[in-house]
Structures are given as structure tokens and as C-alpha cells.
Amino acid sequence: MLNFEFKNPTKILFGKGEIAKLSQEVPKNAKILMVYGGGSIKTNGIYEQVKTALKDFEMIEFGGVPANPEYSVLLKALDIIKKEKITFLLAVGGGSVIDGVKFLSSAALYKGAEPWDILANSIRTYEGLPFGTVLTLPATGSEMNSSSVISRKETKQKLAMGGPGLFPVFSILDPQVIKSIPQKQIANGLTDAFTHVLEQYMTYPIGAWLQDRFAESIMQTLIEVAPKIMTDPSDYTIASEFMWCCTMALNGLIQKGVPGDWAIHSMGHELTALYGIDHARTLAIIAPSHYRYNIESKKEKLAQYAERVWNVKNGSTLEKAHEAILKTEEFFNSLDIKTKLSEYTTDFSSTGKIIEENFNQRGLKGIGEHRNLTPADVRQIVEMSF
Ligand code: NZQ
Ligand code: ZN
Fold first, then answer.
1. Which residue's CA lies nearest to atom 16 of ligand 1?
2. Among candidate residues 177, 202, 222, the one where a domain is terminated
3. Are 36 and 105 members of one domain?
4. Is position 166 within any domain?
């Protein structure tokens, strides 16, 4: 196992009715900015639950954060935070709203002139305005980690930021919120969480047995709940499993002591920036090609995953590795998630070249667990995904 430090300060309140405890978690005398998305919370009862729980607090609202949280929209919320002297932020939404609030948390205390520099110059956040979350969509794990991904339409960029100052103070996870999520978003959540585990597992054997088994158990549970949650999102038992899997997939625990890949996410973010394809779907497009391209360096872990997660018993290490990639593709397809770029856009002939240039420009010379995938390799992987 590699050396590691682990600290995750986010308090989780999990279960039925936990939203009512908001008033105990928000600091007394806080002036709150409640941030939400396009309005789903107004039709599924979550908005009323939050308002009721916080009726004794001074609270201003900011709605309209879009999926793939947009910089220009967030700047309007930043104005309000400064003008109104907000002291606490509350995100009520999925990964996009939570990520948007993380950006606001950092930008509110940022001393520079242009908050975009936090993303463009990879400035880590050690102190942010405190915030909590009410999660409405299990997928990203943003509710219990310190990362955020922000989009900027004007420049077709989607960049990540983070730092120890960006953990939520608390996150409320009530699996009952899942019943109003459209099937397409549930499929996205399953695919995103599954790929988060893959990014931290599908590298090379390092002797981290427990970490491997944590990762495998999250994937096995996601595979088991997937058909059930797709058909009945109101099943509380299944919804609970789904929600906790998504949080555990990216709260830092399974990344400790093991190498991380994260190349699929780096390439996927480019596809969202260029074409607006949902985050999870970009991962399903890239993952199979990424694993085929890197089969030599990843074959041991791919074969272990084939055996332990997909019960593949026969064949050589290489044959099992190939079988694992097919099983992963079939899993995504079973959720009605397409795995080829050409199934999302007809405008793909120069995508590989554009992404190669973007990576060169940003100085991303080596990605993946060995930091040896060059922009030219990235181009080939993207082109294999057409
Ligand atoms: O905006 P509203 O009206 O609320 O509707 C949302 C949105 O349209 C809807 N929704 C959410 N909860 C619902 C609901 N509809 C009905 N009932 C509910 N209970 O779902 C749509 C998608 O929401 P969004 O927040 O965009 O989805 P997700 O949670 O998948 O977040 C995706 C974003 O997170 C980033 C992605 O890149 C993307 O920008 N990620 C963040 C990560 C992190 N911070 O650690 C890691 C991930 O890898 C990812 O990159
Ligand atoms: Zn993701």
C-alpha cells in the first residue's frame, strides 16, 4: 500500500426525514444563501422541506444553476454573497449545484481580481465560506468530497478545482429524494459512480487488498441495484443502497493507499465542454477505448475485476481483461447509455485533434496512473471511441 493521510470532515445525516434537522446543523445567526438548480426542488417537495426546517433563519435564495454549473451564472450569485454579507451557503441539488456552491465558497474569500483564475491556475482552496448540502441526486460524491468542476460556455472550458477548504460542513442524504429523478439521470448516476470506482481501482496491483475489496463491493452493489432502481426509484431499500454507493465511490476512502488513474474524467470533461454531453455519458464513451488502449499496463487489475465482479472464470489474464471491458460496456448499455461518440453527435471527425491541442495548451503532458499518456495518446483513445 502507498503511504497516505486521510481526513474527511463532512458530517453525514442519512435517512428518511433527515432534512428536518437542517436547523440544528446550520450555525446560529447565520445569514444563508440557499442555492438550487433549474427548479426540480419546487415540484418534488424538497424546497418546502428546506424552507420549513429553516423558517427561523435569515435566508436569501438563488435558483437557476444549470447542469454543468456555468461560471457566468455563478458570478451573479457571488455578487449577492458579497452585497448581502452572506455567512453560510446551502446547496440543495445534485453535483452541479453542490459544485457551484464549492466555487462560490472559494470565490467569496478569493482576493484576486478574476475568480476564473482559481480554475485556470489550479489554485487550491484552504479556506472557503462554510457550506452544507441537501443532496437531491446520487451520482458525483460531491456531497462528501472537496472537488468541484465548473464550465465556461464562452471559452468551451470545463475545469476542476479543489482543496481541503472545500468539504461541506454537513450533507443530508435522504434516499426518498430519488423517487422524482428521471430515469435518464438515475442511469447517469449509476454510470458516474461506477466509473469513479474504476478510476481508483483499474490501475495495477499495489497490494492494497482491503481497498480493492471496498472498490469491488461498491461495484457489485451498484450492479445489483441498477435494474431495480431503474424500474422503481421509490423503493426505499434500493434507493438507500444506491445513494450510499455513490457517496462512498468518491469520498476519498477508496483512493487512499492506491494509485489513481482519472484519465477517463480528463477526456470526458472535454467532450462535455465541446458537445454538452452529460458527464456520465462521456465516461461511458471513453472508458472502453481507454482500457483497450492501455490493456498491457492494466491487464492484471482488469482480470481481477473480471473474476471478482463479473464472475469470469475461464481464459488467460489477457482474455479475462478483454472480457471485463465487454462486460463493462454491456452494463452501461443495459442502462440505455450509449458507448460511442458517433451515437451522440455527427460532428466528431476532428474531436481527437481538438482535445490533443487542448491538452498540449494546458500542459497536460502525461495523464493516467503512470503519468505517461501524452496528448497524442489521448487523441488515439478519443478516436477509438468514435
Ligand atoms: O436543476 P434541477 O431542476 O434541480 O434538475 C436536475 C438536473 O436537471 C435534476 N435533478 C436533480 N435532483 C433531482 C432532479 N430531478 C428530479 N428529482 C430530483 N431529486 O437532474 C439534472 C442533473 O443534475 P446535475 O446536478 O447536473 O447532475 P449530477 O449530480 O450528475 O452532476 C453532474 C455535475 O457534477 C460534476 C460533473 O462534471 C457535472 O458538472 N462532477 C462533480 C464531481 C465532484 N464534485 O466530485 C465528480 C464527478 O466526476 C463530476 O465531474
Ligand atoms: Zn464523474
1. 181
2. 177
3. yes
4. yes
The confidence score (pLDDT) of residue 23 equals 97
Same domain, 42 and 171: yes
The C-alpha atoms of residue 91 and residue 37 are separated, in whole angstroms, by 9
Sign of CA pseudo-dihedral 295, 299, 305, 311: positive
Domain that holds residue 44: 11-177
Does one domain contain both 195 and 125?
A: no
Residue 141 and residue 191 in one domain: no
Report d(CA 78, CA 91) in Å as an integer.
14
Query: For the segment 163-203, what is each residue's pLDDT rounded down to a tens digit?
Result: 999 999 999 999 999 999 999 999 999 999 999 999 999 99
- Which ligand lies nearest the alpha carbon of 142? 1
Check whether residue 208 and residue 123 sit in a common domain. no
What CATH number should be reported for the domain holding residue 255? 1.20.1090.10
Same domain for 257 and 329, yes or no, is yes
Q: Are 125 and 106 in contact (CB under 8 A)?
A: yes
DSSP code for 58: E
User: Is the CB of residue 323 less than 8 Å from the CB of residue 312?
Assistant: yes
Q: Whose CA is nearest to atom 46 of ligand 1?
A: 140
pTM greater than 0.90 (yes/no): yes
What is the count of structural domains for the chain? Answer: 2
**Residues within 5 A (CB) of ion ligand 2:** 192
Whether 375 and 231 share a structural domain = yes
What value does the mean pLDDT take over residues 101-117? Answer: 97
Between the CA of 276 and the centroid of ligand 2 the distance, in Å, is: 15
Residues within 6 Å of ligand 1 by CB: 37-41, 44, 67-68, 93-97, 99, 136-137, 139-142, 145, 147-149, 177, 180-181, 185, 188, 192, 250, 265, 279
Identify each DSSP E strand in 94-225 by its residue range. 131-135, 147-152, 157-162, 170-173
CA dihedral 352, 355, 360, 366 (to 10 degrees): -80
In this structure, the answer to whether residues 146 and 263 fall within a common structural domain is: no
On whether ipTM exceeds 0.95, the answer is yes
Residues 187 and 337: beta-carbon distance below 8 Å: yes
